[in-house]
Amino acid sequence: MCYFEPIIQNVVVVRRFMAEQKMSLEKILFGVAAIATLGFFMLALWSPESLAPNPDWDVSDGCLGGQTDHDNDDGDVGIKYHYHPRLRVIVDGEDLQIPSNTGIDQNGCKGGMRWIHVHSSGVANNQAFTTIHIETPSDMNVPVGSFFKVWGREGTPSLTDDNKFDINGNGISDWDEYDISMTVSGNENTLFESYVMEDRQDIQITFNKK
Ligand SMILES: [Ca+2]
Which of 83, 98, 158, 187 is a Cys-bridge partner for 199, taking CB atoms 3.0 to 4.6 Å apart? Predict the structure, then answer.
């Protein structure tokens, strides 16, 4: 018998043990990853809202000191993100006009524009949707309600202090006064005020008095 044989046998046993342990660990890790992936998809299917980004509500306070030239290259005035969702608001069956220049030269941002603003009213130009201009210095989650906040500084509609629609500007949440529904590019959406807008989406909100 070789002098080293017991040692070699021990090494082989230890290696086999370690290999088995490694296989077990890999199986456990694979199992955990599979369960996590399955859980993610089930959550996405059952409750897509829970995966939605958190709105940056302060974005409605943002003010651009000067006008941009809308060539999607406004880095010279500190704007890195510039995109255009479209908004339509229907109250009791009638299109509500979103006025031209909403958010431009308003109190608190004289001579400039809010990061969320309107140049041309859709309804005033016989178009259902009004283009919303979102121009921010960083990647922000701009919710639908933040435009209502900007809008509210010029009268009504507005947003209540707890970020609920206030289409008639009476300080009472419209959820107590109206049946409200919302679609984003034709698909029903239940995030309402908190929905984070994206480029070229058609966002339609319908209010019907209860
Ligand atoms: Ca109200």
Answer: 83
pLDDT tens-digit readout, 123-180: 999 999 999 999 999 999 999 999 999 999 998 999 999 999 999 999 999 999 999 9
CA of 135 to the centre of ligand 1 (A): 28
CA–centroid distance, residue 167 to ligand 1 (Å): 6
pTM of the model: 0.76
Q: What is the CATH number of domain 53-209?
A: 2.170.130.30
Please tell me the distance between residue 169's alpha carbon and the centre of ligand 1 in angstroms.
5
Q: Which residues are close to ligand 1, an ion, with C-beta < 5 A? A: 166, 168, 170, 172, 174
Torsion of CA 65, 164, 53, 97, to 10 degrees: -60
